[in-house]
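Is guanosine-5'-triphosphate placement plausible here? Inputs below.
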Amino acid sequence: MKITSAEFIMSNSSVAKCPNEPLPEYAFIGRSNVGKSSLINMLVDRRGLAKTSGKPGKTQLINHFKINNNWFLVDLPGYGYARVSKKDKKTFQKYITEYFQKRKQLVCGFVLVDIRHDPQPIDLEFMEWLGTNQIPFAIIFTKADKLKPNVIEKQANAYLQKLLDSAWEEVPPHFTTSSSNRMGREDLLGFIDKINQDFFSNNS
Ligand code: GTP
Ligand code: MG
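Reply from A.M.:
I modeled the complex. Tokens:
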């Protein structure tokens, strides 16, 4: 898919105030600093469109970016620094869970994880929560440029195997990316394009 336009539409902290156009949207979620905002910029080829920072906690609100005038990418804040216990899901900022539960336009969440790390409890819990709420999502491995090429695939497969070992019956769609060297860009845009086409053929 060719990106012809990408524009910032709005930031807000309430799902009720998000754009009300019936267009498909994709939301980026994951721990602070994992590379959500950087990946949005890489996908649409617009450095600085989504604000990035070396310090965790840069993105604070729900940010809508309209792409090619007919779908949205949504940049979200990272979920907490603290481990979330099973009992206390509130630690995921309230409007993040509200966004995922209520946003009808959401067609797929992208859960970003740093490819260098083993599965972290907070990511596993968030994915489990998405599964329980029947919210479609894909896993996106980020910062693949930080690994030697011959270990990238091995590391991703080891992560996915751990999901299978921890009660997952199948692994969700997954992509390996780098915002530095643009790895994974075409695959991810192709995935989005396919979902967009299904969305528009079902809603026309
Ligand atoms: P919050 O908004 O704080 O939740 O963070 P975020 O997930 O949006 O991360 P952001 O895109 O701001 O990136 C965090 C840091 O990681 C920045 O210093 C980026 O330059 C760096 N970074 C992001 N993606 C990559 C990547 O693919 N490779 C490398 N080497 N660095 C990356
Ligand atoms: Mg960010």
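Short version: Residues 6-202 form a domain with the Rossmann fold fold (CATH 3.40.50.300).
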